[in-house]
Structures are given as C-alpha cells and as structure tokens.
Specification:
The structure is a homotrimer of 345-residue chains. The first copy, chain A, is an alpha/beta fold. Chain A folds into three domains: 87 residues, Udp-n-acetylmuramoylalanyl-d-glutamate--2,6- Diaminopimelate Ligase, Chain: A, domain 1 (3-Layer(aba) Sandwich), CATH 3.40.1390.10; 149 residues, Hexapeptide repeat proteins (UDP N-Acetylglucosamine Acyltransferase, domain 1, 3 Solenoid); 32 residues. Chain A is built from five helices and 40 strands. Chains A and B meet through strand 4, helix 3, helix 4 and helix 5 of A and helix 4 and helix 5 of B.
C-alpha cells in the first residue's frame, strides 16, 4: 500500500487531491477501482480518464479534462506509472538454485553454475545448459540440446532433440520447439509417407516464445530464429522457416514451410504466410492477413490476399461503396432508356 | 447394452419396430451404425434421418419421413436421447481423493477437504485450493495461486504465479493461465526490451477453459474472466483483457490486449478482436471475423473488417454480383456508343 | 563429414568441381552455407540455385544456369539429396526399451513387448498399449485408453479417458486427444450449463498429430479420425467430427462440431469449417478460407465465404478492378450528360 502523497513525493511530481488516499494496486483506466492508481498516456483515451473509477490518475502536465480521481501531473505519465506499478506488484518469485530431487537428469548432461531445476524436469543425454538457467516443473529437454546462459523455461515446456538455443531465452508454458516438420511424400492414391525430419531448430539470443506456440524442426538443416525475435502465444513456425533478427510475431500467426521473414518484420495477430515466400526487412503484415506473394522490404500489407496498404484500402473503400455504385448504374440505365425512347419517338 | 423395448419403456414413449433390437451406443445420425441409437431434433436434418444407418432413431411425434431404423416417437427427442446416451456411455472416471506420493506440494500450501492430487502434480508455496478439487497428473500450480472449490484441472495444465481462480473451474489439458503478456518497449533500431508483466489473471466462478488455450497475465492489474464464461480450445486472451459474465469464445479466437468483451458476448470460431476495443454486451462476432472497431451492444458483426450483419451481407451480395454489374456497364457503353454515332451521323 | 567425390560416388552420379570439398550439413538453397549440400528440384527456384552459398548443389541433368557451387547432376535431385541428408543428420535418438522408475503405471494396465516408457509418464487403470510403443517423458494416458502397436507419444502429450488409437500413431508434444467437446445448454438469461461429453475419440492407423493440437471427444459416440490422416500443429478438431481416410489438415485449421471431412480432403493452413457441414471426398479448402456451405467432392474452394475456385478467382479479379470500373461509370455519366445537354439544346 502507498499513499498518494508518498507516491507523488517519490516521483517528485505535484499532486491534486487528498494525500492520504491509499493505493493498493495499479490498473488501466477502464479496469481500475478506487484503490488503484492509473495513468493517461495518449489523448485518444481522454474519455477513459474522465470516466475512470481509479483513485489516482497520472496525467500529462497539460491535462485539462474532468476527472473524479486525484491527479499527479507528469511529463512522462507512463514511465512514472510503471515505477509505481512495480512497487505495488506481488514480489516476483525467483526459484532457488538447486536441482529438485524428482528431476531426472542424464549423467552426461552439463549444467552451468547457479541453475535452478524444478520438480519432474527431464534433461536427456548430451544436453549442455549454460549458467543461471531456470527450468521449471515438468519441462523436457531432449538429447543433445544446447541452451545458453540465463534461460528461463516455464512449466510444461518441451525442447526436443538436438535443438540449439541462445542466451537469455524465455519460453512460456505449453510451447514446443523441435516438433517434426509436416512433410510427406504422396502416392497416386493420395496415401502419405512420412519424410524423416532430420534438421533442428536454432534460436538466437534474447528470444521470447509465448505460451502454446510451436516451432518445427527443419526437414534438413535449420529452422532459424534470429536474435531478439519476440513470438507471442499460439504461433506456428513451420519447418525450415528463417526468421531474421528482431522480428515480431503476434498471437495466432502461422508461417508456412521455408518462408523467409526478414529482420524487424512485424507479423500482426492471426496473419498467415504461405510457404517459400520472402517477407522483406522491416515489412509489416496486418492482422488476419493472408500473404500469398513476396512482400518487399518496408511495405505494409493487409487483407486476403494481402496487398500493399494503399491498394488494399482503396479497394476496400470501393467495396464498401458498391451499393452506391450500383445505384449510379441504375440511374444511367434509366437516363439512357429515356434518350433512346426520345430518339425512337 | 439396452433393447429398444427397454429404452422405450424407460422413456415412457411408444416405439415402432422390433423391441428386441440391441443397442450398444449412441451417435449422431450420420455417424451412427446399426447398433447405435440416434435422434432427429431439427427438421433441417430430415434427410440425415432418412439415410441413417442407426438401429433406432428418436423422432418428433409428427415424423412422417422414410427411415429404415426402428422409431421412438417423442415430444422431446434430444432430451430423451441424452438420457439414453448417458446410460450407454462408459462410466465417468472419478479419481479417488488423496494425494499421490509423487506430487510435490509446498509445505505451506493449503488444500481443502476431499482433494484429489494426481501423480507428478506440482503445487508451489503459498497456494490456496478449496475443497473437492481434482488436480490431474502433471498439472502445475504456481506460487500464491488461489483456486476455489470443486475445480478440475486436467492433465498437463499450468496456472502460474499469483493468479486467482473461482469455484467450479474446469481447465482442459495443455492450457495455460498466467503466461506473460506480450509487451516490449522498442528503441529506434527496432530492438525490443521486455516490459515486466506484473499483473495477474482473475477468473470468476463456473468458468471452463478448453485445451491448448492461453490467458496472459496483465501487464499490471488484472486480466479478468467473468463468471460463467466458456472458452473453447486454441483460444488466446491477451494481457489486461476484461471479459464479462457468461461470455463465450469458440475455438481459435484471439483477443488482443486491453480489449473489453461485454457480458454474454459470443465470439464465434477463429475471429480476432484488435486491442483496446469494446465489444458491447450481448454482441455476436461471426466466425473468422476481424474486429477493428468497437461493436455496440447487441449487434451481430462479421467479415473483415467486421461490419454489422445487414451492411456486411448487402456488400457481400454486391461483391458476388460484380460480374453482372460489369456486364451492365458494358451494355451501357454499347448503347451509349450507338446513340453517339447516330447523333454524329 | 563427406567429400564431394565420396558423395558423387555413392550416388553413382557425375560431379563438376573440386572433389575434396568437405560437406558437413544439408540445407535448402536459400539457407545453405559453404559447408552445406543443397539441391534444385523445381525450375521455379532456378534463381535460388544461382544465388546460393551452398558448397555443392545437386541439379537436374539438363541444368544450364550459373551457379558458384560445385555440381552433381542427377535425374532425381530430391531423392539423391535425401539420401545424403540422412547420412549428415545427427543420429536419431531411440529411447531404450524399459520403464523408467518414475513412471506411474496402473497395476492393471497391459503393455505390449518392447515398450519404452519415459520418466514421469502416467498410465491409468485399464489401459491397453500394443508392442513397441515409445511413450516419452510427461505423457499422460487416461483410464481405459487403447493404443495399437508401434505408437510414439512425444513428451508432454495427453490422451484422455477411453479414447481408442490405432497402430503406428505419432503424437507431437503439447497435443491433446479427448478433451471435452464445447457443448452447453443455454437458458433465457444466456447462462450456460455444461452438457456431459460422454463420447470418445477414435483414431485410425498411420495417423500423425502435430504439436499443440487438440481433438475433442464426442458429445456421445465418436469423434473419428480415419486411417492415414495427417494433422499438423495448432489444429482444432471439435466434438463428433468425422474425418475420412488420408485426409490432411495443415497448421491452424479449425473444424467445428459434427462436420464430415471426406477421404483425402486437404484443409490448407488456417482454414475453418463450420459445424455440421460435409466436405466431399478429395476436396481442397484453401488457406485461411472460411467454409460456410457443403463442399462437393473433388472441388477446390477458397476465400471467405469459401467459393469454388473459378467463381472465387473471377470475383477476386473483379474486386481488384473496382477502381477502373468506377472510372468507366464516371466516363459514362459524362458522355450521357453531354448527349442530354445536346438534346436539350
């Protein structure tokens, strides 16, 4: 618990309201309750501040709206809010170093200093794990997997045989790295025979992988995830995909086999990329888009099939005005009819 | 096994056919085999009843179709069928109360009466679980999680630190509650730094969460799931989303950060909702729709971008008639050409 | 490591280049490095071969392009490449037969010969598993489940009560078979009550199920997956769906309740099929399509709502030419205006 006065003092900002108000939590403007502090960062959400139930709101210095809450004026409301929110949060749990006796660890596995291995973890033969790793309950690390320093595997994650993972990797629960690629040969009767998937997944440094996502191993060679790549929940990355540095994939994205995703590309939520395509450096694919052709570097595409923003929005506008277009055609038909009748007359 | 005569007697309904027919299972009309009982509830599926292989079909009293199966006439075919199906089903398995010796439970965790804790379950420090909980094999419950009475966690589920769950919660295998929200600050080079996700997930009473779904913890404050909410498989609920009471999310839905989903909203399969939007109470979003604007209470929207039903279906009809529209324009061009030539002549 | 000369000799093919080149890995043309071998199978990717960094490329006998790499000419580049890639791959790990002491196996479970049961596996009462099964760490097999011979359950998979699985089944990590169908009765206030899901899932022979996918048990009777069906990652199959033999579902597909998917149907990535529909034998549904009506056998449909290829591509072409169509209407309006003014004059 913090009082309004103590918060304002810590931040070194002026406040308006009763300094003894007690604040127990931090929340967005629309979800906040009277015991919460909140903040307004973007003008667009001005009405949220005017209707909030929060006890205290950190607002820009120029704020001139109507807000029931006590106020703290700040040149950087979001940053100030983050400082306060961190103090009000439950303390983050850091598992103690050590190996839980129920973990099953192959004799020849090499673990770095200060690792924390939780209950029921399984680490197979030939595994190398760097220092300061946290591997939570029920995680599985397959034979000959290599993982760098400072990784954090959340409970019930799976990294399968031979995959190679960089430093500072964070992997959320339910996710899978190194499942087989979806590859079959097909005979004339449509019966499929599995093609051995003998490649691996190679993940760079500073990568985060969300919950219930899956990254398939390569048919041969590597499925590659670059440095600094951030992948959200429920994402699928197929075999042999190559993802550049600092690319972002939001929840629900699917990338088909052998696609190349350039550096700093952003794939917005639930978009799909067809196989063997190249998404150029810095391109952005909109939410729910379906990409069926290469996307040049720096372009923003959306829709299905995905088109460049200008073209897609122009076509979309035309589509939404189709009823009027039809009326204009009907009007033309009537006027033409009149002219033709006059002529015949 | 039940005979037709014994089924009809139990239900107190008349039957037509050989009363000694033996029924071993219950199935839909199209999947049924001669040893199955089935039912017809909706006229629309009349042809399914006429083509079924089922041995017995429960039909409405007014049924006058051609059906090879023996018949039971009923004023409520679906309810009667459900009674019979329950008897024919394999007995539901109820794990015995008790704690499996392989479960790892923190000393200070508090478990209610009559809990059943399966093998390899992990329950961390500070956890509170109500009475009559069933926690199946491999489930993980993080530090300071609180769970109400009568919950059922299926195998290999994960509930992470500090989340709070109501009574009668059912969670299906592979699902995750409390994974980190997808939040980063970005510098000018497009390099992302993780923003600590210090909030929790708060789940109301009578909620069911399907398999392989994920609900992210809030950046701060709560991701909130109301009472009576039913969530299907493969669903993603992002950080700070607020879901009202009795809302429904069908398989494959994705809800982006800080969206507000009103009471009794229905999000049909594989639709997506963009961040910070509000879906008003009782609104319905169609399957595969992409919602890019607020949806007023009670509205039905679909398509991408999602539009109100009337508008969306009108535009869709216009789109499907574009070939004819083009022909009308060509026809106009010809007639106009004729008029112009006549005039010149 | 293999030299170019030794590879060519093994394959019985001529080579062009320095026979002592050392090859350590196999990779696609675009991801290959100088120590890799690659191949060109399809003319379409000719430019990839001309720009590859691979040390050796296996090309068609008729190859006449410019490629920096050493070459092996072959009448079947892909098959030859696969042979070499298998030799260069890390040796596949085969877990030794036996039962890990940490596995928890019900006394009355019946396991065939030569099974390998990993750490922390749970096998419940009444389970029957055929010979030569591999059940990896953390997998869960519920009461009375039956599994045929030669199955492979990857780590952290879950097969729930009473489900029946054929021979040679492969199940990837994080996947779930037998979660409850999404079925509720609804009262006038929109409050839902769970309908018991008392059916099972029945899976044929030679089926593969990808990572983080889920197949719901039937409300009653069976959710049925035919023989030879291949299902990718992140796929959802709802209760009572009937999937024919040799059907294929690519990543991200969602099939709603009671749909019938015919033999050899292909559902491409991220498409959705609404409930109770029939997709006829051999039909193909395009990526990201939304199927809202039955699809006749052998048809290829795509888009939302999904339409037959001819119709869908015609409409799509019309949509993309809407700007021109509007210009033609404006032109018509001007010309008509002129005629009308002349007439008035």
């Amino acid at each position: 618990m913090l009082t309004l006065a103590s918060i304002a003092e810590q931040l070194g900002r002026p406040f308006e309201g009763n300094g003894t108000i007690e604040i127990h939590g931090a929340a967005g403007l629309r979800e906040a309750r009277p015991s919460d502090i909140s903040y307004l960062a973007i003008k667009k959400y001005r009405s949220h501040a005017e209707n909030t139930l929060a006890g205290v709101v950190i607002v820009p210095e120029s704020w001139d709206g109507n807000c029931q809450a006590a106020l703290i004026r700040s040149p950087s409301p979001e940053a100030d809010f983050s400082k306060v929110a961190l103090q009000l949060a439950p303390p983050a749990h850091t598992p103690a170093p050590g190996i839980h006796p129920s973990a099953v660890i192959a004799e020849d596995a090499v673990l770095g200093e200060d690792v924390s291995i939780g209950p029921h973890v399984v680490i197979e033969q030939g595994v190398l794990i760097g220092r300061n790793a946290t591997i939570m309950a029920g995680a599985y690390v397959g034979v000959h997997v290599q993982i760098g320093d400072d990784c954090y595997l959340h409970p019930n994650t799976s990294i399968l045989d031979h995959c190679v993972i960089g430093h500072r990797f964070i992997m959320h629960s339910g996710s899978v790295i190194g499942s087989d690629g979806f590859g079959y040969s097909v005979n004339a009767e449509g019966i499929r025979t599995k093609i051995p998937q003998i490649g691996i997944v190679k993940v760079g440094d500073d990568v985060e992988l969300g919950a219930s996502s899956s990254i398939d191993r390569a048919r041969f060679g590597c499925t590659r995830i670059g440095n600094g790549v951030k992948i959200d929940n429920q994402v699928q990355v197929a075999h042999n995909v190559q993802v550049g540095d600092h690319a972002v994939m939001v929840s629900g994205v699917g990338v088909s086999g052998s696609a190349i995703i350039g550096d700093r590309v952003i794939l917005a939520g639930m978009c799909g990329v067809a196989g063997h395509l190249t998404i150029g450096e810095g391109a952005i694919v909109g939410g729910l888009a379906g990409v069926t052709k290469d996307v040049p570097a720096g372009k923003y595409v959306y829709g299905f099939p995905a088109l460049p923003f200008d073209k897609a929005s122009k076509i979309q506008a035309h589509v939404s005005r189709l009823p009027q277009l039809k009326e204009r055609i009907e009007e033309l038909e009537k006027r033409l009819e009149t002219l033709e009748q006059n002529k015949r007359a």
